[in-house]
Amino acid sequence: MHPVIDLLQTNVDVAPDSLALVTNTHRLSNAQLLRQVEQIAGKLGELGVERGDIVVTSLRVELSWPTILAVLYRAAIVMPATSITKLPFDNPKVLVSETRVAGFDSSRTVLGSDLLALFKDQTIVEITPSTIESVDEPCWITHTSGTTGRPKGILFSYGSALR
């Protein structure tokens, strides 16, 4: 059971050519979005991302949603940030960002340019989505700096994301 990815797969099965994601620069069908999600999930798996790990993302919109879904594909927890100069959370497993962040291990950073290069690769990596035990498992951390400048977070479950 993997409800968010199951929903995307259902959309691919029913209407693979229907629009799934539209940005100022990109239009992806359900099938294209799933392919990108699987490619990014494969890259995250190569970096050791497993169920329950935290992945921080800071990407432009055409890369952000495929990456967020890829983190969920791995049954990991995604923490999106609109911009990032220092990590808003102690020791995430991986950072997926447009730029490197000072003080974070560069071997655990995936750059936006690396993702674009990944999409040009026509090799399709066969991987199986990680399973989750319950829709109550956490999948997302929402954060704000508030007025103090200190990161705060709220955990969301798969069930909340589906609602």
State the separation between the terminal residues, measured CA to CA: 16 Å
Which outline best applies? globular
Spatial sequence of strands, sheet with the most strands: 4-3-5-6
What radius of gyration results from the CA coordinates? 15 Å
Structural class: alpha/beta
Number of helices: 5
Q: Major sheet: size, sense and barrel closure?
A: 4 strands, parallel
Kindly state the number of beta strands.
8
Proportion in β-strands: 15-25%
Helix content: 25-40%
List the secondary-structure elements in sequence, H or E.
HEEHEHEEEHEEH
Task: Provide the residue-averaged pLDDT.
Answer: 81
Unreliable runs, pLDDT <50, ≥5 residues? Answer: none
Verbal overview:
The structure is a single chain. Helices cover 34% and strands 22% of the residues. It has helices at residues 3-14, 30-46, 61-73, 112-120, 158-162, and strands at 19-22, 27-29, 54-58, 77-80, 94-97, 109-111, 138-144, 152-157. The strands form 3 sheets. Strands 4-3-5-6 form a 4-stranded parallel sheet. It has a two-stranded antiparallel ribbon with strand order 1-2. Strands 7-8 form a two-stranded antiparallel ribbon. β3 (54-58), α3 (61-73) and β4 (77-80) form a beta-alpha-beta unit.
